[in-house]
Amino acid sequence: MTAILPRRAALRALAGLPALMSAGALAGTREDFAQALERDPRLLGFATARAESLAAPLAPLRGRLPSGLAGILWRNGPAEHERFGHRYRHWFDGDGMVQAFAVADGGASHRARILDTPKRRRETRAGKRVMPAFGTPGSGPLLGPDDMNAANTSMLAHSGRLMALWEGGSALEVDPATLAAGKFVAWHPDLAGLPFSAHPKVEPDGTLWNIGFVTRPRPSLLFYRIDPNGRLLKANLVDAGPLGMVHDFVVTARHLVFLLPPFVLEPERYGTFLDSHIWRPQLGTRVLTVDKNTLEPVRRHELPPGFHFHHGNGWEEPDGTIRLDLCQSPDPRFVTEDFRGVMDGRLRFGSPHPRYRLAVLRPDGTAAIEDGASGAAEFPRIDPRYTGRRHRAVFALAGGDAGEGWPLRRIARLDPEGGETDAWAYPRHQVPEEHVFVPRGDAEADGWLIGPFLDLRRRATGLNVFEAARVSDGPLWEGVLPYPVPLGLHGIFAPA
Fold first, then answer.
1. pTM for the complete prediction?
2. Of 38, 82, 329, 348, which sits 20 to 30 A from 223 (CA to CA)?
3. Homologous superfamily of 7-495 in CATH?
């Protein structure tokens, strides 16, 4: 491994966080939200989990589980939205809950557990909320990112370890048998406690790539290259100019590619991590292309301003042109406004929703953004065997008809060149979450889609399995739990 970040520099990066310790207004009380939930049942997905641990089989409602589908869908998301009588101010703030949907022998079962992180244990001892969160102020001293690590965004299974991921701190080991929170992962002593983001990329050979957003001494990107055995091969810290949240990236055959939206951190702005960001569209969307061998930038492009969280995939053409797909909105208001409103009991989703788009980065320095499909789209997933390769299928949640009350009601198959090619609409009383592709045969997109949904009539969480080649046929199998689980963010499928 090439260690480029000395321990002294690492400690400076850990200590130099924005001012996040201010007291501030709370989103409201448990009683306030309960009253709002009675008026609008769609808020059920943003209520706190009914218990710290949950377990039950799924009762089949229709169809039959495919005989070849066996494994665990691991899910994660904020689930403890209120503690000590008060709610967090943003959907992304609550303590994480790891979920395991186990599918085998024609049946499915569910286990879930709130992750008792060091941050949560500290607050339990204090009997009150202490640490700041993404969008909620706190009062306790903050010495490093893991002091506020809620482990609430995604999951990673790699080199024999199961890990819960958060945006701004270390990966957290999770016991797959008990779902208990373990220790924070240190990929190297020099990098202990530094951010390891929630969207790592694992290539078919097991190579793991990831990033971290470091705030001090200046906003920078930290790159990780980890071998299939979990050994850090190389890391590098790069000053990328004005920088803010970088949630996702793509891997191609030779490069890592980052689209940097103009929602940038200004550390002198006092408040939460989210409040320390400002929308500066005049900066445009800057593109950083990094060589996979050296982890150094080799190309830069500029695109019109836009905000995105998620990519599908990226690939390179013979002439060096890089193409990648993403779900992009005109600005970040759905994060700064809509996802705050749900914590107050205001479910409006009035901001522009992300749409499926394509970025074209040419070797001569020119670049363009193209529309990939009409309508809203988010949570894109691909056949993982095609990571970094030319792909023809992206599966995403897509918008329904106007006025139906939930912005992403369909599961759709998208072609980077042909737009939407297949789709199925969930009933109006069901709220779908991210669906994950599970490979079966050798061809791209030969397999299944598996994903949870929240049934508002039953007040329960369910699980659907689709034939990926025929999404419009509807679920092959549908099952439901005897309880609801808060809406989560991301997951992975680990085959048996």
1. 0.94
2. 329
3. YVTN repeat-like/Quinoprotein amine dehydrogenase (2.130.10.10)
